[in-house]
Write a structure and sequence with these properties.
Layout: H1 7-11, H2 18-21, H3 30-36, H4 38-51, H5 60-63, H6 85-94, H7 96-102, H8 107-110, H9 120-143, H10 147-170, H11 177-184, H12 187-212, H13 227-237, H14 265-283
Membrane topology: Multi-pass membrane protein
Keywords: Cell membrane, Membrane, Receptor, Transmembrane, Transmembrane helix, Transport
InterPro entries: STRA6-like (IPR026612)
């Protein structure tokens, strides 16, 4: 079976395989950037964890006095979350290009180190953990209660990823068939990173204005039953008038939009990931 040509398999070995592929000579190496980005990802995680206070008093706090610091920042609530739905979808979409490679055994492109056959499972596990840690700040900066710091760190981190991926694409010297694959394959993840940059910038401006106006910021805990769900149930219980013959053409509509209905975060994320994975499979 012929090997699948993916974006990272064409960009990993810049110096040795560039003459064979005849596509790109690049100074930006995404495999090294994945390793290097682990450092700011860990620093962002530690910073947000320090700011997050723990709700319960643990026995370990008596031995190690931390003042209820270093709580766990929940990345995303898939059960009952309706806030920042498209932002979480973009965060998952930004990870899709790298995570997509994990399902196709393209580990050698990002994690180029030798391991015996019995240690492959451990290597794969470490690879998945490193990739997950690299993209964890996207979600943590969106879900943290400290909006000003979280949006600042998220904006800088997403901007860094966007600039590196954009520079990696624009360094192609010649336009060939493989170069077209190099350009179009990471477009969804690049668009998601750009969306996150704009979203974090918007949230940062809103948080700065709120702090400037000295407005009391309430803790953003979603209620047990959000207001739009209450309105949606009331709308369903109302008696709907029968459709007149003049509007019989509307019966052919597949879906009628309801202003009181909102898709939850889990459905938005699932739809975004499915579309990006389908896009990557088609271009692979």
């Amino acid at each position: 079976m012929e090997s699948v040509v993916t974006y990272e398999s064409l960009t990993a070995s810049n110096g040795t395989n560039s003459q064979v592929l005849g596509t790109c000579l690049k100074s930006v190496r995404m495999d090294l950037f994945v390793h290097i980005s682990l450092i700011p990802a860990v620093l962002i995680t530690i910073t947000l964890s320090y700011l997050q206070r723990r709700a319960k008093h643990e026995k370990t706090a008596e031995k190690i006095p931390l003042g209820k610091r270093f709580g766990i920042v929940v990345p995303v609530n898939f059960i009952s979350s309706y806030s920042n739905r498209w932002s979480y979808g973009a965060a998952c979409g930004a990870t899709a290009t790298t995570v997509f490679l994990l399902f196709f055994n393209e580990y050698s492109n990002y994690f180029n180190f030798a391991a015996p056959s019995w240690a492959k499972a451990l290597v794969y596990l470490l690879s998945a953990l490193e990739v997950g840690m690299d993209y964890y700040p996207f979600f943590a900066c969106l879900s943290t209660d400290h909006r000003l710091i979280g949006c600042t760190l998220g904006f800088l981190y997403s901007l860094c990823w966007f600039c590196v991926q954009l520079a990696d694409i624009l360094q192609c010297q010649r336009l060939a068939h493989t170069s077209i694959i190099l350009i179009f394959t990471p477009i969804p993840s690049l668009a998601c990173c750009l969306f996150l940059v704009g979203r974090f910038l918007q949230l940062l401006i809103m948080a700065a204005l709120s702090l400037y106006k000295q407005m009391e910021r309430k803790e953003e805990e979603e209620p047990l039953l959000p207001q739009h769900l209450t309105n949606y149930v009331r709308h369903l219980l109302k008696s709907t008038p029968e459709m007149s013959m003049q509007n019989s053409s509307k019966r052919w509509n597949i879906y009628t939009w309801d202003k009181h209905f909102k898709f939850p975060t889990r459905m938005i994320v699932t739809a975004v990931l499915c579309l990006i994975c389908l896009y990557n499979v088609c271009y692979s």
